[in-house]
Amino acid sequence: AHVSAPCTGGSNLLNLSDNREELKEKHRAIFYEILDASMPSLKESDGFSWELPVRCNYWKDSALHVYLKSLSSHLGLPILGTLVKSCALKVCVSNGVPVGKTFLFLSTCPSIITELFRFRECNHSHHAALSQVKWKRTECYPELLCDSYAKGLFKHCSNSADSVNKGFQLYNPTWSNKMFLYNPHKFQQFPL
Fold first, then answer.
1. How crowded is residue 75: how many other Cβ atoms within 10 Å of its Cβ?
2. Sheet containing 2-3: order of strands
């Protein structure tokens, strides 16, 4: 099962709005309603994946950490992760300049993270300015991401996963330290 909940309430762009606190509260309520609604299905699954933009403020919420750790512990599986950069997926604005939005994908399925791992790096010298990006267009997954995700899911379901996985371990229910390691700047310290 995959969860992609709306990230609007965790966006720093809301700080530009006059009624930012009201909007944050409204969107945060929707976000956590989706989490609550998804929990029973995810607990019945044999694994899950999750995604939010890396700069989304929801990553700082202890409630999100509790939710993800609870799923991981219930399934008895570690949470693995990788960054996925829009520019590596060939997402560009109309004049061909790449979009610099970065996501953090999590999964208990190593083959999904391994397939997405190749999109973690950027080799572009610059990205589109915030004012150039039509953010509504970044709400949907690009075809290259969908294909790679599906390939990883197929490998997971058919038990034909790669012998060497790539990604980073963000949480393991067997760790004595029950911290959820979501900071992408520290990922190199936590190799899989």
1. 18
2. 2-3, 49-53, 102-107, 79-85, 168-171
Q: What is d(CA 112, CA 81) in angstroms, rounded to the nearest whole number?
A: 9
- As averages over each run of 10 residues, the pLDDT of the chain (192 residues) reads 82 82 89 90 87 86 88 90 90 85 90 92 82 75 93 86 76 79 61 50
Q: Which residues contact 8 (CB under 8 A, 6 or more apart)?
A: 14, 23, 27
Residue tagged 């060497």 (tokens):
164
Nearest to 115 by CA among 158, 147, 137, 67: 147
Query: Are the beta carbons of 170 and 192 closer than 8 angstroms?
Result: no
